[in-house]
Amino acid sequence: MAALATLTIAACQSERFKTPPFYQDQASAGVQVDAATAAQMISQYRANNGLPPVSPDPRLTGIAQSQADAMAAEGTVKASLAPAQQLATRMASIGEPKTAAAENVSAGYRTFAEAFSGWRESPKHNQVLLTKDATRLGIATSYAPATKHKVFWSLVLAAPAPQ
């Protein structure tokens, strides 16, 4: 009986001390940013600024992932400027060539909390977070251990999908 009580306490303690998703280190292969947590934090920030919430969208996450992967492969955020990586091109690739969308790209942040803080403090990145008509988001990271910044981020915010 005492062993069961000890095991139960240990399980509770490990849950209590679990790293929150927004502090999860992205600097490892295969780690994915928690889109639901990102949407929740961004939505709260948007609500504080009188804007509607955003929710995760798997197709936007797919195009965010392609952007993060392209930057990681090249080892620079400048890879986001390539014609194939332009946001309009990637939106068209998912059948939404006319949907209003905006994107933040960055590198070097190890956690979503760091990336979110950096985006809020940058006027141009903050403008994307506060995109007026956005209701959906896609967010992704890509890890490149041999590069200076290690972790590359893409956040796509978009208006509702056409019906």
TrEMBL record:
<dbReference type="InterPro" id="IPR014044">
    <property type="entry name" value="CAP_dom"/>
</dbReference>
<protein>
    <submittedName>
        <fullName>CAP domain-containing protein</fullName>
    </submittedName>
</protein>
<dbReference type="InterPro" id="IPR035940">
    <property type="entry name" value="CAP_sf"/>
</dbReference>
<dbReference type="Pfam" id="PF00188">
    <property type="entry name" value="CAP"/>
</dbReference>
<feature type="domain" description="SCP">
    <location>
        <begin position="41"/>
        <end position="155"/>
    </location>
</feature>
